[in-house]
Amino acid sequence: MIAASEARHYQALALELLTRDPAPGSSPAEGARLPAQLLRRLVVEHYDFIWRLLARLGVAEAEVDDAAQQVFMVLVTREGLSIKPGSERAFLYGVALRVAKEFRRRAQSSQNHVAPDPDRLVDAAPDLEAVAARNQARRQLDRILERMPENLKEAFILFELEDLSVPQIAELLAIPGGTVASRLRRARAFFQTEIALLQTSTETSPP
User: Fold this and answer.
1) DSSP state string for the chain
2) Residue 113 pLDDT more than 60?
3) Given this model, what pLDDT does residue 39 score?
4) 72: Cβ–Cβ under 8 A, 6 or more apart, which residues?
5) Hey, where are the domains in the chain?
6) Does 1.10.10.10 match the CATH number of domain 122-207?
7) Among 28, 67, 106, 144, which residue's beta carbon has the most beta carbons within 10 A?
8) Pick from 12, 27, 31, 32: which is nearest to 72 by CA?
9) How far separated are the first and last CA of the chain, in Å rounded?
10) The pTM is what?
């Protein structure tokens, strides 16, 4: 995952990009946008959340920074944008879902047309068992999340990985708290089933 120093760097880039003055010669309509102070607050308060969310929604790590900036660029490119106070995170969350879907679609299309690089298939550090174990665990989590139904995945990620409460998730997704709780129960059951299948597969695989 991205280092803290890198996260601050990309957050700073997003701030500079979003709050710079309109290009010379642009018309008032082209320059109209949310106040710079609001843009700055939204980036500072929500950039890390959106970055992690995009990574967990299947955007390739090398593209997460671009995807995050694309999410926030909506704030300055959508004409007449108005966000209800208190619903900023929910708005950005909805944009992030669409951006993640587009990046996954593009990545899948690229994989279907590009042959794998043999050098990338070779483990460059086979003695780093701890790193390999973490990478394997991350890949397994990603595969489980890919198979998990979208509505269950949202609740699972926000509760288990982002540490949001059920009321917070309900507000973010604009659904009743009981629906969130139900989705969480089903998501956990799905996750436990997938873990059990992985363990069974590992135990029955030849050495």
Assistant:
1) ---HHHHHHHHHHHHHHHHSPPPTT--HHHH--S-HHHHHHHHHHHHHHHHHHHHHTT--HHHHHHHHHHHHHHHHHSTT----TT-HHHHHHHHHHHHHHHHHHHHHHHHTTSPPPGGGGS-S-TT-HHHHHHHHHHHHHHHHHHHS-HHHHHHHIIIIIT---HHHHHHHHTS-HHHHHHHHHHHHHHHHHHHHHHHHHHHHS--
2) no
3) 84
4) 14, 18, 39, 42, 43, 47, 50, 92
5) 1-115, 122-207
6) yes
7) 67
8) 12
9) 31
10) 0.62
Rounded Cα gap, residues 18 and 14, in angstroms = 6
The token pair at 89 is 């995170």
pLDDT of 182 reads: 96
Structure token pair of residue 83 = 């966000």
* Cα of 66 vs its chain's centroid, Å: 11
Give the pLDDT confidence of 80-103 residue by residue, as tens digits. Answer: 777 888 888 888 888 888 898 888
Contacts of 119 by beta carbon, 8 Å cutoff, 6+ apart: none
Q: What angle do CA 175, 153, 133 make, to 5 degrees?
A: 150
CA separation for the pair 52, 7 (Å, rounded): 10
Give per-residue pLDDT as tens, 9-47.
Answer: 555 656 555 555 444 444 444 445 678 888 888 888 999
Residues 6+ apart with CB under 8 A from 144: 190, 191, 194, 195
